[in-house]
Amino acid sequence: MVKLTIPATELVRPGHAACPGCGPALAMRLLLKGLGPRTVLSMPACCWTVIATPYPTTALGVALLDNPIESTGASISGIRAAVDALAIPDVTVVGFAGDGGTADIGLQALSGMLERRTNAIYVMYDNEAYMNTGIQRSGATPEGAWTTTTPVGGAGRGKPERKKDIMGIVLAHRPVYAATLNPSFPEDFVRKAAKAREIAGPRFLHVFAPCPPGWRYSSEETIEIGRLATDTGVFPLYEVADGHLRLTRRLSSLKPIGEYLGRQGRYAHLTPEERARLQAEVRSGWERILREDASGSPGGPFSSRSSHAATKGDTVEAA
User: Fold this and answer.
1) What is the pTM of this model?
2) Are 211 and 221 in contact, with CB atoms under 8 Å apart?
3) Is the Cβ–Cβ distance between 250 and 116 less than 8 Å?
4) Is residue 178 within a helix (H) or strand (E), and if so which, with residue range?
5) How far is CA 298 from the centre of its chain?
């Protein structure tokens, strides 16, 4: 594997308001290392508006526009149009929104941005609940997880519904590039962000973003929990370019999902039977991704062409 040199320049300033061990803070730091200073961010109400922009300060070294929670996709379409009208060169337009502001409240604007073929990157940082307003469940909250609106006790067993398949929704719009990223794998993360920067058209990055208070784990465990999410198959790392899926971290075998669930208080109530059901669902999803990665042929939800060629210089991490 060719080692990636991660840029030393920091575009997230120290002294911001993130919690210790904040996954979204790590995600923003790595994202901007991949995108560079010629980036314009649009951000809705979310954890990051509290982290970075208590008036009149900012923790970010790039241009930033706050937008309403439902309109990130529309906002970056407007910014792109303005940049093009003014003929400003070498600008990467990026929407950066949480799972609630993307998979739920902002889904229509995301769909519109993808359908219009806006030349911009939409980033969903996924901490799997509305963390900024008190750990309420979102469409991206996994099945069985405790939140303040899916409590445990009496008849409550955590969230009864499955996690919304945001990548499946996005891929139905045929973006030019889409990928999953995890800050526990920084080289893979920065490489994908930099790759997305160099591609024109609608792009989507789904970023795994652990949250210590919302997931109920100790703040120093964020990196390890992120690695377990990928190595148990809960959050596989892959990219989809021109309709072809390619794993960027291949595993000879999955670790048991219990190693991931057992580290988080939001899953402490699950019975062995409930854990076994979640294990079966994860394995089924992993096997589907393996088939897509191996085939490169039309017919699946990711594929649109009959050939599968990796971009020159791309690398794959194996475990």
Assistant:
1) 0.93
2) no
3) no
4) strand 177-181
5) 25
